Structures are given as structure tokens and as C-alpha cells.
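Weekly structure sync, notes
Attendees: PL, DS, HV (note-taker this week)

Item 1: N-acetyltransferase
DS walked through the input record. Source organism listed as Paenirhodobacter hankyongi. Sequence as pasted into the shared doc:
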Amino acid sequence: MFQETLTAQPVIEAGRFVLRPLRRSDAGLISMYTADRRVAEGTRAIPHPLPPGAAENFVARAMAEKRSEDVWAMDGSANGLAEVLGIVSLTRVEPDQSEVGFWVGPGFWNTGFASEAVAALVAANPHNSRTLFAEVFQDNPGSARVLTNSGFEYLGDAESWSVARGGRVPTWTYLRKMG
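Item 1 (cont.): predicted structure, written out as C-alpha cells:
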């Protein structure tokens, strides 16, 4: 993955919330949500149990000038919702391709928030990518629907390491051609 100095992240309108860059005050809610085994096991990189300081370190990396990933909070505070509903991210893997990642706090599952966030990120295309890549664990068909609802096409099966599960997990991979 590329580590480069990325431009400032835009705030992106996403229906019932905005996608905004992380700030230090987000660490508490991020820590609370990702301490849930179900959230951690739905991702490749979140450990379970969550070590002390992990959320603060994640926020610090997301705010760093030199980073390989842009991370946005799904912030619903303007509409009477939580300040952090979940996270959506873009990681540049090649100059013209980025990988989409996302998770939503368990109290907001099955609300359409993930679909709104990914659709808004795809529409904004802040990395000006020609293609977007994503993968989901095969035991998470809801996340697969989020991707297909945003125009991602199924590529095939693979495996990825999950820190929380301590092993390789079967995945479905997806690609979205842009513009």
C-alpha cells in the first residue's frame, strides 16, 4: 500500500449523516463499538479484546499527514443521532485504485447507514480512483449487499486474515469501476 501525503479529506453529505474526518474525541465511541466481538470479527484489523489505547492510536493514524488510509466518521449529530455511527475508509492500493472499508456500531445495524455511507463515498470518489475494491467475510452477507447496492460487482472468493478471529477467513471480493 502507498503511504503518501494525502490531501485534506472532504466532508461528504450522506443523507441522514455526514462523513467527516476523524477527530480525537471520536476515540471513545470507536472504542466502545469495536470492543464488541461482532464488530471486531467483521474486520481484518480490529483485535478482540481491544487493547487499551487502540482506538486512540487508530484516530491518531487517521489524522496523520502521512497516511495510507483516509477514514471518515459517519456523524449523525446534526440529525439527533450519535456523533459516530460507524466508520468508512478508503485505502489507496495503487495510484488509480482504492479499497473501501466500513463498519457500523451494533446499535445501528440494519438501518441502511452502511449503504448510505458507501454510496456517498462512491459518489464523491475523493481519491479520483478508476476502480474501487472491497472484500467482505462470507459470513457477513449484509456487507455484501451494501457493496452490490453501490454498484460493486462480485469478482470471486478469496481469504483474508482476521486479527480478532486469529486466522484466515473466506471472503467475497468486489470491484467497482468508476466513471
